[in-house]
UniProtKB/TrEMBL annotation:
Name used for this protein in its record: DNA-binding response regulator
Native organism taxonomy: Bacteria, Bacillati, Actinomycetota, Actinomycetes, Kitasatosporales
Segments forming domain HTH luxR-type: 155-220
Modification type 4-aspartylphosphate: residues: D55
GO function term, MF aspect, one: DNA binding
Domain Response regulatory positions: 4-122
Residue runs in coiled coils: none
Keywords: DNA-binding, Phosphoprotein, Transcription, Transcription regulation
One Pfam family, short name: GerE
GO terms for biological process, alphabetical: phosphorelay signal transduction system; regulation of DNA-templated transcription
Length: 227
């Protein structure tokens, strides 16, 4: 199946470079380009994109607001947003993950990393850049958060609905471990881990593993470790 990719960036030169790269792959194609967040949301709906490569800083509606709109639209529940950022350590990235992005990637990443990120997001199999994303979330959640009032307090209560094994798996997911790694650590099959992850996502109202990581930290199940 061909992965339908939408490019959202206010720099035309970057969009052109990404288009050439993506269209060179036999299993993916660029279905549209947007120069701001509002256009990105509209084109995501019109072109039925599978993955949106979203810049954060754009004029008008920025990438953060656009990610929230896409995540909040039931018709776009299967769309995955990958944040592209110039700065790997950026508080906007954490806000984007909270808003529903599947992960982030630096604009300075190698071409193969970008292509792998698109395939990973489309497959919904793993959190992008697990160690980096997990460390980033931990760093910012360890600091005073001015937007803490916007969090959903019910998420912490929903942890009570998880089984003991689901909690164990969630802690491992928050540590940036893959299903295979978790299976080895807990001495169960990867399929069993996948089942627990899917059940935890359903119970906690998470779109994907990235949001599971955020919930694990925000609820206090996992404590940030900042060196």
């Amino acid at each position: 199946m061909t992965i339908r990719v939408l490019l959202a960036d206010d720099q035309a030169l970057l969009r052109s470079a990404f288009r050439v790269l993506v269209d060179s792959e036999p299993d993916m194609e660029v279905v549209g380009e947007a120069s701001d967040g509002a256009e990105a949301v509209r084109m995501t709906k019109e072109q039925r994109a599978d993955v949106v490569l979203m810049d954060i800083r754009m004029p008008g509606t920025d990438g953060l607001a656009a990610t929230r709109m896409i995540s909040a639209d039931p018709e776009l529940a299967d769309v995955r947003v990958v944040i592209l950022t110039t700065f790997e350590v950026d508080d906007y990235v954490v806000q984007s993950l909270r808003a529903g992005a599947s992960g982030f990637l630096g604009k300075g990443s190698e071409p193969e990393e970008l292509l792998t990120a698109i395939r990973t997001a489309a497959g919904g199999q793993a959190l992008l850049s697990p160690a980096a994303t997990t460390g980033l979330i931990a760093r910012f959640l360890a600091q005073e958060d001015p937007d803490a009032g916007d969090r959903d307090p019910a998420r912490g209560e929903r942890l009570d609905s998880l089984t003991g094994r689901e909690r164990e798996v969630l802690v491992q997911v928050a540590g940036g471990h893959s299903n295979d790694e978790i299976a080895e650590r807990l001495e169960v099959s990867p399929l069993t881990v996948k089942t627990h992850v899917n059940r935890a996502m359903a119970k906690l109202g998470a779109r994907d593993r990235a949001q599971l990581v955020v919930i694990a930290y925000e609820s206090g199940l996992v404590r940030p470790r900042v060196e």
